[in-house]
Design brief:
Blueprint (H helix, E strand, L loop, with lengths): L1 E8 L11 H5 L4 E5 L7 H14 L2 E5 L18 H21 L6 E2 L3 H7 L3 H14 L4 E4 L4 H9 L2 E7 L23 H14 L1 E3 L5 E3 L4 E4 L6 H14 L3 E2 L21
Parallel strand pairs: 1-2, 1-9, 1-10, 2-3, 3-4, 4-5, 5-6, 6-9
Antiparallel strand pairs: 7-8
Helix pairs in contact: 2-3, 3-5, 5-6, 7-8
Length: 269
């Protein structure tokens, strides 16, 4: 039994830091790296690629709306499908290039925040994201939420989907995430998150807040890096899974052969 553990990392900006990226990289098997629109910058992106390479952690682009102040979690009314194609392709391409500079290869894409929520509810927007990913690199895996438009859009676009669940969030009846604006939709209890994650992967199903159930395939478990309990939560989930006989491994293993001209080989930062 194999499962991936992923987290949204690299979400600082300049000297401002969010979360404990270094510790999380020692726990997770895949890192979703912010690409500069909701958080992150070229220096952070490059640093994350180099650190992930040293730990053999897979990396993926984590594109979101252009919304640094709102951390990409505010809805973007009026954004068209064509605009979404371009903002996704732009961010994916940027992280691909920075990874090449670090001599590493990114292997997947996961949408962030309000962009992810929107395309998980709308087939047309999901198709736009898929077109943006495929235009940048049709060999990339798309980390999607099972039972939502993103899973269907990946298959229509010929992209390989990997299906993730959330240990630290509750689900609406659509099996999209329940809104953060509502109380108790973000889980901060590390023990509770571990129990939820183990139940979901063991049973292969999601349960919404109202009790609705959906059988799903599960390839990865997400713990948000900006959750104050994220390190404790990730450690607990990993330990619980391993105790039950699960092997933790990336769903999209990176090709660590030399890519581009890695600047980390020619001198210090």
């Amino acid at each position: 039994m194999r499962i991936d553990l992923n987290s949204d990392l690299g979400e600082g900006f300049g000297p401002w830091k969010m979360g404990d990226d270094d510790t999380m990289l020692d726990i997770v098997t895949s890192a979703n790296v912010a690409c500069g629109f909701h958080a992150g910058d070229p220096e952070i992106m490059h640093s994350m690629a180099r650190k992930a390479k040293a730990r053999k952690v897979a990396v993926g682009a984590h594109p979101g709306y252009r919304d640094l102040i709102g951390f990409g979690r505010r809805p973007a009314a009026g954004v068209t499908g064509r605009e979404i194609e371009r903002l996704v392709a732009y961010q994916v391409g940027a992280f691909q290039a920075v990874c090449a500079l670090a001599g590493y290869r990114m292997s997947y894409v996961k949408t962030h925040g309000a962009l992810g929520n929107a395309c998980n509810d709308d087939d047309g927007l999901a198709d736009a994201v898929a077109r943006g990913i495929a235009a940048a690199d049709p060999g990339l895996v798309w980390l999607v939420m099972p039972g939502t438009p993103t899973e269907r859009a990946a298959e229509r676009a010929g992209l390989r989907p990997a299906r993730e669940i959330y240990a630290d969030r509750t689900y609406a009846d659509s099996f999209n995430l329940a809104p953060r604006s509502r109380p108790d939709t973000v889980i901060h209890d590390a023990a509770a998150a571990s129990r939820r994650a183990l139940e979901m992967v063991s049973e292969g199903r999601l349960v919404s807040e109202s009790g609705k159930s959906l059988k799903v395939e599960i390839d990865s478990i997400c713990v948000h890096g900006d959750n104050p309990a994220s390190v404790e939560m990730a450690r607990g989930i990993r330990a619980a899974l391993e105790e039950e006989g699960w092997t933790l491994a990336p769903f999209a293993p990176p090709d660590s052969a030399s890519i581009g001209h890695a600047t980390d080989q020619v001198g210090p930062e």
